[in-house]
Specification:
298 residues; Immunoglobulin-like; 6-stranded antiparallel β-sheet; alpha+beta; Lipocalin; single chain; 21 strands; 6-stranded mixed β-sheet; 3 helices; 46% strand
Amino acid sequence: MKSRLIALFILQYFLISCNDNDVFEQEMYKNVVALISSSYHNNFEEVVPLNDEEVTGYITASVGGSYAPDRDLTVNLIEDNTLFDKYNWSLYDADTKLYAKLLTKASYNIPEAKIVIKAGERTGRALVKLRPDGLSPDSTYFISLKALPEEGVEINPNKSNVLYKVMIYNQFASQAKNSFYSMTGLQDGAITAGSKKLFPISKNSVRVTAGIESFTSNEQSIAKTSMILEVGPDNKVTIKPYKNLVVHQIDNDSRYPNKFTIEESYGRKFNVFTLCYDYQIGNITKRMHEELRMEITE
């Protein structure tokens, strides 16, 4: 009797183990689709140039499983702000002035709002046409999307949304990384040095804080202390106010001729601005002679 009970227990255990193995193998072989993004709020960053032209990007999906699918897998893309709203609230609570922004329809187009992963392949993608000119380097922009699977397609619920983040750059500065230039020069004849962050504005222009004024990341301060450096085809720099700053360019200074150059030294390359200008904060006018220099690493 005892031997019979032991045999029944072993048989039951064997049957359960076989069933678990079957489930495990089914899970391994399942083709589950996921939108490709980072683990940080399902962000995907697309860094695009400011070049006065439409540029392209892609939203990509991949499929898991032990083997590639034996048929086409299709998911449709729809606009859905659930993840976008969650992102803003989790990072900034009710401080709406800090919120990220949705990219307007004037700045992008998805010609075919679906992703098809072809039979035998592991990935598929949808084309995004982007028009980034006019975007602000001070704002975060997203296209907030959700993938809806067609019948018979399984999607990973944790990877069914994506915050497609659009960031801008030009030859002189990038929103995606800190473009800090070392600054050396003179203010009203006194030697000064420091570092300045430049921000891409258009294909051939950047924004920078005037003189040795402190940079504060709010609209009022930026409007008060910032200027535009616009580089012409001849590399001549035109200095303009960004918004409220009073600034006057001074030309014909041989050492600071308001020019942009790329310098090479011992195999290294540098972006270099040499500038001369007067600017006014309140009732005080200051004269600035400065060189801005940053190594080109890419």
